[in-house]
Amino acid sequence: MHPLLTRALLALALLLAGGWLGARLGAAFAHATAGAFGGCLLGLLLFLLQDSLRAGRLLRWLRQAQVGPPPPDALLWGELGYRVERALRQREQVARREAQRLVQFLSAIEASPNGVVLLDAKDDIEWCNGVAADQLGLDPQRDRRQRIGNLVRAPAFVAWLQGEDADKALCMPAPGGDGRQLALLLRAYGEGQRLLLTQDITEHERVEAMRRDFVANVSHEIRTPLTVLAGFIETLASLPLSEAERERVLGLMAQQAERMHSLVADLLILATLEGSPRPPMDEWVDARALLQQVLGDGQTLSGGRHVLTLHEAADRQLAGSGHELLSAIGNLVHNAVRYTPPGGRIELRLLPRDDGGVEIEVADTGPGIAPEHLPRLAERFYRVDGSRSRDSGGTGLGLSIVKHVAQRHGGELQVHSVLGQGTRMRVVLPAVRVRRVGELPAPWPAPDDSAHDAEPARR
Questions:
Q1: Which range among 14-28, 196-210, 236-250, 441-455 has the greatest average pLDDT?
Q2: Total-model pTM
Q3: Strand 193-200 relative to strand 181-189: parallel, antiparallel, unpaired?
Q4: pLDDT of amino acid 116
């Protein structure tokens, strides 16, 4: 039955019961009408008193933050308490779901590699993730409700935040002074709120600088021989030369053409190394035969001006590309030949490592390299002595090729040098690419035409 109908019937029953009781009492005292009226009034008062008590219990439950179930009641106040309780439970469920979604959303932003800062209409920080805190020098908890312009005081940032160009990206150094570069972006949302996005572009800027330097170096390296060739061609076309002078000019032109050919070949080798998959793990190269071939090429290049020695090499086989390894070790030997004075010694070694890997070492008695140059030796076109390297015919790409070959085989290039005492360069290969010769025989593959195309570069 509907609670309102039940409530009305209860009130009517109390009125009738009170009227009947009052009439009986009134009849006993000869005042039946007055007694009936008084009885009805008493019944109404009893109903109102009972109803007030029920309403009071429900009101106390509401005031006590709805602890426990509502007061039990079969009438209107019980139904009202039940409805209120159900609405509250539904609201709590919705609030829990929304809170869970918010936590998931903030967790997703926290996992982002970019920084995120939520700003209110006054540019106070409402929330920021850990990446933004690290990049901008903020504390995610302590700095909440703080003005971001008071925390990040870089003039460029403050001007950008308050200026009309806030819709454009801003590039600036990180506030910590650690050399990092940041890109910042602002986006409006909500009612006057703004989203500040930060990104660490240090690596991007470094790569972009390397690309600019690479293009500039390539242009310079090609422009120089082209200028020489153009001058010689003009000389041949405009001046009468003797046969000896003509032979000399043609020889110099051939040298410049060969220099450009070497540069283009080395660039193609680098492009191939960077764009191709890692060398296979199931093709094995005999290390001793590889070093013997490198030794022969080095002796040919030296022309008897140096003492080249191959020390007794361990019986090992290397997994990977034989031609890449030949090019890499050949570059090290060619560098040693070019930079070691006549009469100097150049030694090749294959050294087993305790972890199962090997070190292929090329040591010379040349002039050595100053410590400040060692970290940059494998950069493209980097030269310790630019003029001397050009005179020796190097392209400045040799050690870069060695580094790429070593990394493609899971290893690394190590350089140890003392100025005036010589240089030791090592290609370190991991144990996964090394095995003893007795395990499975794998002869050194015969060289083909592609090996000549991939002539080792010079530094």
A1: 196-210
A2: 0.52
A3: antiparallel
A4: 92
CA–CA distance, 15 with 23 (Å, rounded to integer): 12
What six digits make up the tokens of 454? 């991939």
The whole-angstrom separation of Cα 16 and Cα 190 is: 63
Model confidence band, residue 44 (pLDDT cutoffs 50, 70, 90): low
Structure-block tokens of residue 267: 């660039």
With 50 as the cut, is the pLDDT of residue 138 above it?
yes
Considering only CA atoms, give the Rg of the chain: 45
- Tell me, what's the pLDDT at 148? 93
**Phi then psi for 455, rounded to 5 degrees?**
-60, 135
Q: Hey, what are 392's tokens? A: 């020796």
Residue 9: predicted pLDDT: 59
Q: Specify the CATH class of 278-453 in words.
A: alpha beta
Beta-carbon count within 10 A of 188 CB: 12
* 300-351 per-position pLDDT tens digit: 988 899 999 998 766 888 999 888 899 899 989 998 998 899 999 999 999 8
- What are the residues facing 196 on neighbouring strands? 117, 186
The residues, ordered by sequence, that sit 6+ positions from 36 with a Cβ below 8 Å of its Cβ are 19, 20, 22, 23, 26
Candidates 1.10.287.130, 3.40.50.1170, 3.40.50.880, 3.60.120.10; CATH matching 212-272 = 1.10.287.130
**DSSP-assigned letters across all residues of 220-235:** HHHHHHHHHHHHHHHH
* Domain boundaries defined on the chain: 3-96, 112-200, 212-272, 278-453
Cα(295)–Cα(290) distance, rounded to whole angstroms?
Answer: 9
Question: Residue 433: which of 452, 455, 409, 458 has the closest Cα?
Answer: 409
In DSSP terms, 364 is beta-bridged to 346, 423
Q: Phi/psi of residue 360, each to 5°?
A: -100, 110
Say which DSSP state 147 is in.
B
> Which SS3 state, helix, strand or coil, does residue 394 take?
coil
Tell me the CATH architecture of domain 112-200: 2-Layer Sandwich (3.30)
Q: Phi/psi zone of residue 368: left (φ > 0), alpha (ψ -120 to 50 degrees), beta? A: left
What are 43's two structure tokens? Answer: 């019944």
